[in-house]
Amino acid sequence: MAAAAEEVGNRRVILKRYVTGFPTEDDMEVVPATARLAVPPGSAAVVVKNLYLSCDPYMRSRMSRHDEPSYVPDFVQGEVLTTLGVSKVVESGHQDYKAGDLVWGMTGCEEYTLITNLQTHFKINHPELPLSYYTGVLGMPGLTAYVGFFDVAKPKKGDYVFVSAASGAVGQLVGQLAKISGCYVVGSAGSDEKVNLLKTKFGFDDAFNYKKEQDLNATLKRCFPEGIDIYFENVGGAMLDAVLLNMRLHGRVSVCGMISQYNLEQLDGVRNLFHIVAKRIRMEGFIVMDHYGTYRKFEEEMAGYLKEGKITYVEDVAEGIESFPSALIGLFYGRNVGKQLVAVARE
Amino acid sequence: MAAAAEEVGNRRVILKRYVTGFPTEDDMEVVPATARLAVPPGSAAVVVKNLYLSCDPYMRSRMSRHDEPSYVPDFVQGEVLTTLGVSKVVESGHQDYKAGDLVWGMTGCEEYTLITNLQTHFKINHPELPLSYYTGVLGMPGLTAYVGFFDVAKPKKGDYVFVSAASGAVGQLVGQLAKISGCYVVGSAGSDEKVNLLKTKFGFDDAFNYKKEQDLNATLKRCFPEGIDIYFENVGGAMLDAVLLNMRLHGRVSVCGMISQYNLEQLDGVRNLFHIVAKRIRMEGFIVMDHYGTYRKFEEEMAGYLKEGKITYVEDVAEGIESFPSALIGLFYGRNVGKQLVAVARE
């Protein structure tokens, strides 16, 4: 079989150079290559065809070169990027996988990938839902919202919840999970279009465009006259400083990310940390990979919500592998509306 | 009885003016007054003679006027300051107290005080130990160290523990509790004399004088080549920023106070908060008043350690009520060596 392996065109996205400051499309390059649709003899690997590739903020860290190991490994200059994706197995040397299986997990930013380590891949249990959802609401961002809200923030009915980057891949879900949990939820986003989505589509009680607000402290006081019990932190910087002023006693800050800081050479200073003492705040960071053991429970619960119409999900789909660099860069300018992904192939 | 009440001299410390920036002795004034050693008829109050008065960093907040309620009430301009103290009951209208009883709790910065609310007073169960210890190791700072270390930081044997302001009222105890718990502990302080105390008297594994270090990040890397599991935070600002760079995965920051920030008009910005995500750090503030329910358990345990010689305690005792203003101000310049208190009377 390996001898007769088909060789196919395989366009791929490589990292042209390590990035400092804001990344640009030119830091990446889409190059032609070929792939052999064959598993090395005796290896428990699979060859997959990539259908949907995910663009996520944490990837910014991987585009820089770190002297000390970062929380995610750096990309390698000149080599193909990797990302989470939804893929179809086309050849398998692994006893648990066969051609035609649909999986999600870490794959190459390319059309076909040889995956040798399947430890953190999941088979897709609900192919009746849109497959692209496994880059979002049924994948890593969904699980992120779920564990960051329930396991880290530990909501109680009636809590006042604030979500930043609230129309993003994670934020839109946190808001809807908060409503399902009987909380009052307000979101911030960076355009009126997104704010409108939050209020009309995702059921947030209120929302604001942070770019139009002069004084975030005053804005939060207006939105939360009683203060904030839970802040789901996606942005960092000035927003966090304003939130700290408005937290309630025993408030919780679930720290998922700080996208406002990822491209800065000089990070913003956060000045209001003493409120952590005065208000007995718990501020806790988490990484979704630590919670993959929760995935199957989450997948069933979330699939149920989707089928019952209790949760809705908005995706921003770029077409074709060539669009990957601009789609990824767009995250850092807030160009995406909803979860950003790239459709490489439909089946 | 009330009719025959004795009137005595009662020097007291008043707040002359609200403070901005660094407080000075001139912001307070020691004034003569008199006290009647009698309880108002029908009241469940007590009159106490104050023996030892505590000087604590949180009092700085009370010296300023806040537009919104702070976590502790502001002092009132022109009126006597209040603080925690060890006192002897001289007259009692309360069924649970009689003349001669020794108590600790909130009292006036004066020689005699009429206490009408005894809800947060504790009778002293171990008068065989130095009574002044009830302003420190057996009082609020002791309980602070105990709950902040055990209940908030949740140590495990072998954890790497860093304590700032480590020779202070709280820090010296955190270090010793950490050693009792089988941890490795390093402290920072602001003089070579204090550093010496940490190493020779309190049994810290290592210690440094932060004023002599050029690069706190490098210092912490030297002291903790494996990183820090628990940071007991007393100072805030630049030290916190350096600590965040050196925390280990799943580290905990128990936020007790941030004394470096209390006198600043413009607070320091902390830039390395993304490490909370990357290292899954839990940073949690606490206020000892929330934990008074633990006091009796703590008192017995700590009294046991003291009697067994497992814990030692260093106090900096200023003599006489007139010394209160300078003793309090000294905290913010690090003039005190060990727990600062004022001996108003010995019995």
TrEMBL record, chains A, B:
Residues 24-342 form the Enoyl reductase (ER) domain. The keyword Oxidoreductase applies. Keywords: Oxidoreductase. SUPFAM superfamilies: GroES-like, NAD(P)-binding Rossmann-fold domains. One of its GO terms (molecular function) is oxidoreductase activity, acting on the CH-CH group of donors, NAD or NADP as acceptor. Pfam families: ADH_N_2, ADH_zinc_N. Homodimer. This is Predicted protein. It comes from Hordeum vulgare subsp. vulgare (Domesticated barley).
